[in-house]
Design a protein that fits this description.
The chain is 58% helix and 11% strand. The chain has twelve helices and ten strands.
Length: 415
């Protein structure tokens, strides 16, 4: 009964979030902006475009599905064949079906052995693909809102007085160049804002994939849908309020962008190893020792993705590129006698032995799971231990928190 109630509540939240997000971005009427409309009206349309760019990336598939569905039902039946592809039932119906499937996996999948975690890993990649699909939709809808303001259409008249005797003729020529540049600039800015907010909220999807608790999964999903619904509700009260909330989310997302990116890479590598059957498939003696830095590796941000390099004389160093593309950096590791290797349910970890709480130096990808002895031999690490077993909601929350912060807490298995 409790699971049924939770499922119904989650479904209601999903519907509220999708409908609200679509309402925040959809046009109120199909009429174009007239010269008599006030600057306040233009400001409202611009505020809606800000909400669109910062609201949909919270949950891209849910956002664009709701956007397309609401536009479809608000369009007279005779005009529906003229709607764009993302407002057709085949698109938003399929989107809602996938959203429901992944939401149901949180409760139903937990009762089927071997189903939930693979589905979580699939959803982690689906969320990134949905963001790529949602980006052009958001750009098209944003342009539609901008066109309703009439700002670009009025560009020649605004530029005319600045061109002396040439007047509007010269201004019209300037508009032919200026308008595409303005549109490209606004498009690039929109993509940047979309990507920044998406990175922050994709972290929630990574946490769901790594979470050892179905209840914790449900709370994480409720948080994400709740944020989407909150943005929609704020916009429903007033477009400026929705834009203010959207800009606040954008600022917070920008401040944690580096952390969000590293955790996104972490989740992508782990889920890809599991989905492609690479778990335990790497040869520690010959494979590149890919690793994610932990809190015990001073000088590198937690979850930096790089490589352990073992020198001819046994020297070890961690080499990584910030944002994966910037110039490479290196850090020397602790002497081998002070390092230990720990088995884990996800993958093995390298930790600093002989100190309080034994901070994690790095976590290897799942391709090295079950190959701890080979790793220890290559790294000249003498100590190989088992981690602790995680059971119960509180223990799952602590394990997930330590996993995200880079501590890892010696987790061995989940249950």
């Amino acid at each position: 009964m409790l699971r049924t109630r939770n499922t119904l509540c989650l479904a209601a939240a999903l519907l509220l979030g999708s409908a609200g997000a679509a309402l925040a971005a959809d046009e109120a009427t199909s009429a174009a902006v007239t010269p008599e409309e006030t600057h306040f009206r233009v400001g409202e349309e611009l505020a809606k475009s800000v909400t669109l760019v910062t609201g949909v990336p919270i949950s891209p598939l849910l956002g664009v599905s709701g956007l397309g569905a609401l536009r479809y039902f608000r369009t007279p039946e005779a005009l529906r064949p003229q709607l764009p592809w993302y407002a057709r039932p085949w698109f938003w119906g399929s989107g809602f079906a996938l959203v429901f499937l992944f939401a149901a996996n949180t409760t139903i999948g937990a009762a089927v052995p071997g189903l939930k975690k693979p589905m979580d890993f699939v959803e982690e990649h689906e969320n990134k693909l949905s963001a790529l699909l949602a980006t052009p939709i958001v750009l098209l809808e944003g342009k539609r809102l901008l066109d309703r303001t009439g700002l670009l259409a009025d560009l020649p008249a605004a530029l005319g007085p600045r061109f002396g005797d040439a007047g509007l003729a010269l201004a019209g020529g300037a508009d032919a160049l200026a308008r595409p540049l303005v549109e490209v600039g606004l498009g690039a800015l929109s993509v940047f804002c979309f990507a920044t907010v998406f990175l922050a909220f994709h972290v929630v999807q990574v946490l769901i994939a790594l979470s050892p608790s179905a209840l914790l999964d449900m709370l994480l999903r409720a948080f994400r849908v709740g944020m989407l619904a909150l943005v929609a509700l704020a916009t429903g009260l007033h477009p400026y309020l929705g834009a203010a909330l959207g800009l606040t989310l954008l600022l917070i997302s920008w401040l944690i962008a580096g952390w969000s990116f590293r955790l996104t890479v972490f989740g992508s590598v782990l889920s890809w190893d599991f989905l492609t059957g690479r778990v335990g498939g790497a040869d520690p003696a010959a494979a590149r020792l890919r690793v994610f830095s932990g809190r015990g590796l001073r000088g590198a941000p937690v979850r930096s993705y790089g490589e352990l390099e073992v020198g001819a004389e046994g020297a070890r160093r961690f080499r990584w590129r910030p944002w994966l593309v910037l110039p490479a950096r290196t850090i020397a590791l602790e002497p081998a006698a002070r390092l230990g290797l720990r088995r884990g349910a996800l993958s093995p970890t390298l930790y600093r032995a002989g100190v309080v709480r034994e901070p994690v130096v790095g976590r290897f990808p799942p391709r090295f799971r079950g190959r701890e002895e080979g790793l220890a031999a290559r790294l000249a690490v003498a100590e190989v231990t088992d981690g602790r077993i995680v059971r119960g909601f509180k223990a799952a929350w602590r394990a997930l928190r330590e996993l995200v912060t880079g501590g890892d807490g010696g987790v061995s298995a989940v249950g």
